[in-house]
Amino acid sequence: MTFNNPITAALPALHRNDFPPGFAWGCSTSSYQIEGGVHEGGRVESIWDRFCARPGAIRDGSSGAVACDHYHRWPQDLDLARELGTNAYRFSIAWPRIWTPGGTPNAQGLDFYDRLVDGMLERGLQPWPTLYHWDLPQPLQEQGGWAARDTVHAFTDYVDAVTRRLGDRVGQWITHNEPWCTSIHGHLDGVHAPGQKDFATALQVNHHVLLSHGLAVPVIRANVPDARVGIALSLHPVRPASSSDDDAAATRRHDGLRNRWFLDPLAGRGYPEDMLALLGELAPRTQQGDLDAIAVPTDFLGLNYYFPEAIAHAPGQGPLQTRVVAQPGVERTAFGWEVAPLGLTELLLRIHREYAPRAVHITENGSCYDDAVQDGAVHDSARRAYLVRHLAALCTAIAEGVPVQGYFAWSLLDNFEWAEGYTRRFGLTHVDFTTQQRLLKDSGKWYRAFLRGEDV
Ligand code: FCB
């Protein structure tokens, strides 16, 4: 099975009117990837500041200490989002700007996001904050981080403070970004902060992250009239690498941890039984009521879509005994991620069929290429094609009845791409990290023309 459009396929014609009225059009960013200003406004150290200081942790030895200097340049960046013609903007709130040792929320941190939100509203951008996009306060890591159940309660206190302050102007809230990455990259592969490598810890972390989502939702609803609340998951279409029964079974196991491990408990089905049986002692310790809390109804599912995976049975490879197999001859971004627009349609249809969330927002989708500035322009035709084809795939899913209500391109700006540092550019806007100059790429110009309702 393939999720690829033929590489040579002509770009489909698209019009903004092909999408439902009231659709949220935006770009997505996150705090640690763009803000910089790590020592300003009373911000405490984050696990990413600490992780970046580890030799070899970040491909180019960099950190998010300056990043896009958005902490100082946000008015200009919000102008860019407005000039693109977007009507919504997804960003994240840095918990280390709000956290203090004594527990009283840091007023300077709240003031910063207060101004940022007002800046969005002044520009006609509906704010879509994410409350946790991976930057845990380092002092909480020292008390056990997400592996400690107390962090769940620290999170709901933080959510309470933020939503009390911003809830009169912000109606949409995303609790977590990609719990899979927090858990697996942060605590099993160790390629993300805090850089741990233990399967049981990773699953316990994941349980606490999901629980903190579940307990945060009622807090948000109490503080925000008519709040719309959701969680953003990174989900992947998966298919067997061959027609063998072994690969089909391996694919089911891989799907169990990649997708069902999140979708099932959020939908009130608990953790998948087949996976609990497989994981045995590694499964998270849960307390009575946890799974009910996690199953709290939400208003939308945030879907971050990047690539599909092909899976083979791999004896000896961890408890899952699975392996991701790179498919030959497929189109890839500079990151090596398979370009598969049809995978987005397929994934949305599956989610709709099997889980039926009330609404879906594509909270991230985008591509990384080795962009070059030539005569004051960035001719990123591959990124433009990626965007066009994924939007067309989205249209197909909507036509098939999937209630998709928004699309946020990753990302507004080139930024600090975690363990890859500044070597991976995903922006619709090019950032020169020496001068901090911003330059709209051709893909950004395409998005602007599309959002203006031009025939593109
Ligand atoms: C996602 C992350 C986002 C960005 C993109 C490329 O997994 O949520 O911060 O790094 O990948």
From TrEMBL:
Q: What is its EC number?
A: 3.2.1.21
What is this enzyme's class at the first EC digit? hydrolase
One GO term of the biological process aspect: cellulose catabolic process
For this protein, what reaction is catalysed? Hydrolysis of terminal, non-reducing beta-D-glucosyl residues with release of beta-D-glucose
Q: Where is it found, in Gene Ontology cellular component terms? A: cytosol
Transmembrane intervals: none
Keywords of this entry: Carbohydrate metabolism, Cellulose degradation, Glycosidase, Hydrolase, Polysaccharide degradation
Question: What positions constitute the catalytic site?
Answer: E178, E364
Is Translocase one of the keywords?
A: no
Gene Ontology MF terms in the entry: beta-glucosidase activity
Q: Looking at the record's lineage, which domain of life comes first?
A: Bacteria
Binding-site positions, substrate: Q33, H133, N177, Y306, W410, E417, W418
Q: Which NCBIfam families match?
A: BGL (TIGR03356)
- Family named by the database record: Belongs to the glycosyl hydrolase 1 family.
Tell me the protein's name.
Answer: Beta-glucosidase
Write down the species.
Pseudoduganella buxea
The record lists the lineage as:
Bacteria, Pseudomonadati, Pseudomonadota, Betaproteobacteria, Burkholderiales
